[in-house]
Amino acid sequence: MRTLFHNAKIYSMQSEDSVWAAMLVENGEVKELFSETPELADVQKIDLNGKYIYPGFIDTHTHSFEGGLYSLGADLNSAQTIAQVKQILAETKPVSGLIFAYQLDERKLAEERFPTIAELDAIFPDTPVLLRRIDGHSCVINTAAASKIEWQEKLPANFNGLLNKRWNDVAATWFHNQVDAAGIWQAYEKAAQIGLKSGHTAIHTMIGDGNSDPQHCEMIFANSERFGLEFIPYPQITDVEMAVKLKSPRIGGCILADGSFGSHTAAVKQAYTDNPESKGNLYHSDEFWLKLIEKAHAHDLQIAIHCIGDRAIEQILTCYEKVQNADFKNLNHQIIHAELTSDTMLDRIKNSGVSLAMQPMFDRLWAGKAGMYEKLLGKQRTSHTNRLASIFKRNILVTGGSDWYVTPLDAIGGIQAAVNIHNVDERISPYHALEMYTTNAARLSSDEGRIGVLKTNSQADFVVTDQDILHSHNIGKIKIEQVYKKGKKLI
After folding, report:
1. What are the structural domains, with CATH classification, of the chain?
2. CA nearest neighbour of 305 among 250, 262, 268, 347
């Protein structure tokens, strides 16, 4: 069946002035674009009533299993007191016999603290409970969980339920590994539903515990058509042979070079403004990273590593430079997040062919006067966070993501945030912001021409909106009206 979509403004993303009035789709592909609605025989016509079409959005950094799983649990974003946290938890239904909660921000609570282990035990004396801090780098658990987890390091003497650093990772991994097969499918199906509703036709998803377990990669690779939305998996492992065995083109994701600003674990060159004795944490040695990166590079694997602070970014960038200088390959090795960068560092990123997977919503949430960045880093360093305009000026490949579950899976929100970066010198145009979630995102996974663009023989993945993203005064209010994957309407 041939379908003609017409009476629309179609942004193909082939270039900024590539705008069309009608699009012919056949067998899941775009066959032709038209500047005027053509007279064609034997076609189904769909009148879009003056709406706007863009390539389907692509989020290049999500934790889709966790995001779907936690969405089945408790969202604590609205809680303003410990009492409200407890009330939300008490009404939460378990998944695979476990209680999951996320979006906990103790700074927003009246008490400005985390719930204690005793407070969690009073609600759930026998059911393991996991509360993830909003950045994912700290969590709170109850006694039922603490007694079941096999700890690699002894818990701190003053343990009161709160965990960070490696303890946080061990606890979260244990919880995720307890989810049964039905819960795993339920989590991914929930993630796909959320992604499609927000206009995504593909999302990059981080899978694994960062050590040796690829967890669900084989399942996703084998069931790519099951969800409607396309998952692009990242085996979050340090086992290069396993990644090769999985036939994955990439390795990494949130394998961590450092932690987060909010948990004071992001590795920074100058001490934290609010904690002068701390410069955060480098999670591994230079030797560890160079060995891993050299081995992955030799196997032609794209590498993706989580780096928040400038000290961590420099550590990983130096390793990338060494392997690229020895044997340059256009693999788009990634630095994920890249929140704090200098001009010199950005020049080095450009020269080494490294790409950046960034999250504009971080700026929306944590920058600005008296925001978290300013409290932790000071005003001057805050001006060197989320430097999108400087990155675009250097023609560095930069893509947009959410880090979902950390921030919502919401490309429209990300575009709005990118256009309105708090530092006015780092704001980008709506077109560049849209590129981050379409053409640039497709390039990152070597899918350019297949997705992220609308042109002859590209996949017919597209989204219909009620307003024009490129000419709206309030992008954040734009609504997703329809979503098509391979020409099939899913929303």
Report:
1. 2-55+475-489 (2.30.40.10), 63-177 (3.10.310.70), 181-455 (3.20.20.140)
2. 250
